[in-house]
Amino acid sequence: MNIELITHNKQWDDVLFRFASHALFQSWEWGEVLEKTGDSVQRYGMWKRKECVGIFQVVKVLARRGSFLHIRHGPVLKEYTEETISSFTEFMKIRAKQEHVLFFRVNPLIPESFQQSFASAGYKPAAIHAMDAEVCWVLPLDSPLDAIFSQMRKTTRYEIKKAERMGVRVYRSDDLSQFFALYKETAKRQGFVPHKGIQEEFDVFSRNDHAVLYYAEYEGRVIASAIILFFGGQAIYHYGASLRGSPSGAHLIQWIAIQESKRRGMKLYNFWGVAPSESVSHPWKGITLFKQGFGGEESRYLHAQDYPVSPFYCIPRCIEAIRRIKKGY
Prior knowledge:
About 35% of the residues lie in helices and about 30% in strands. By secondary structure, it is of the alpha+beta class.
């Protein structure tokens, strides 16, 4: 295997959309988001003879619990064989030592059945909770809209019709100021840490009309908002925010977004991360019930895998395990 940097987005995207078009965090656009927020991004390609058989986008995470290299939604490989996993791993071991990190983390969007393949190569399941939508809720969009609507939960259909009757207005905007106000309030109410880089993400993806910001307004006041990404044949509900106790603007936004996704020819509407079905006390239970109300099914991928390169890896591993348990994940 020959591994070299890739510097042209067309070459990168050609490989990505052939092997894993749904791998959002391995997209060239996501790399641009990271660069806008000050991260150093390196994009590598793997060649076997003259064929590119894999790509992976690497970012260095400087965390107080211990720095590491992160390949989110990757590596993206043509085939996850012993040869390709081994070649990738040997290369990353060298890069990790050069960067003086404690470990590197991968979470390719592949079936959980590949767990043993990574374990055989020396990886450990990460102690962190399921993140990066490795457990997500997806709605196929191959049915007509009336069929999709009829398959929703009864209460979800009611909330959508109620919002329409009350005169809730959903519209698009390029101004995130009201979104951030709602998002801050939602984060405080639900007890999560707000994501960083949302403005940069919207700027990059909306440049080619790959991101839409929706607002729901009632009696002159914004009551809900959502950012939807369009990538790799799927629409992704990436961020949402709403006022407590307000009319069902969030439900109506999702229905409008589903209709727009159908219009654009998307194959899936991805509601993004949800609580695993076997978890009874997960902090995402509320938002999971909301997402499931629109119909669809759970989709699971391999949990994040860590490869330790330092004996001090035990420190971040213990910290992540304690945080996961304390937060109820």
